[in-house]
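ok here's NAD(P)-dependent oxidoreductase:
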Amino acid sequence: MKVLITGAHGKVGRAVTQAMLDAGHEVMTTDLSQPGFERKLPGAPQYMKADLTDAGQAFAVVRGAEAVVHVAAIPEPTGHPAHVVFQNNLMGTFNILEAAVRFGVKRFVYISSETVPGFFFPERDFLPDYAPVDEEHPVHPQDPYALSKHFGEQLMDAAVARSDIQCISIRPSWVQFEGNYELNLGPQVRDSSVLSPGLWSYVDVYDLADAIVLATESDLPGHELFYIASPDNVGGHDFAQILSENYGDQIQLRGLDRPDASGISSAKARKLLGWQPKRSWRDYLDAEGNALRN
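and the structure:
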């Protein structure tokens, strides 16, 4: 397929671009980086700079695409004023999806967020109802980032209701790559009492890219939602034990696939997309949370 990837120069966008090329797709990319005038290697993706909050620019980059992977977004709510996060993320999604509908794009993959349930950046703290968290968990987003991602998922519902487009929303867990495992996950490997809202969950960026390729190639009808998280928790701890030790009976424990399960379940993605993650924090860190230098 001819696939457009937005936010192609970010952490996830770079990995997805390479995974799409490796899968044999023709790739078009867009981001806010200034393009350079250089000779391109054979098969290199086409690049066009575009601000997707501008409808005209969004339509310009979608033209000719058969599938769209929408990664572009401000990735968290604390580094920009709230109205900037909300406006950028929501209008960028609206414009690129509107263009996809009008041009007859058949497949749209939207990168949403694990923050949508609302227990990541809340002004008034609350906990998940149960764990591992799955796609059926209620959502109560409070912050502008989670709200923008939740409304983006609703835009997908509206798009499939009014056109023949097929949409998949992906909620990745905390995305890691070889350069940040030690900094981000090292403390949790050493000590399970170091908490994160995702209940010791994470996902490797290259496993996430594989899931996005599968979603793009899928023929699932309508709009489907998937969590994408590694099956094990950070540190390989006994999940039932650390959940009880740190939260008591505040979070209901549901069935686990394995003793060291993640706090977020990707069972639906494994079943419907055939996603099989290949990487773990153990490939990057030792039992003390230090980077494996090889």
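+1. The radius of gyration is 19 Å.
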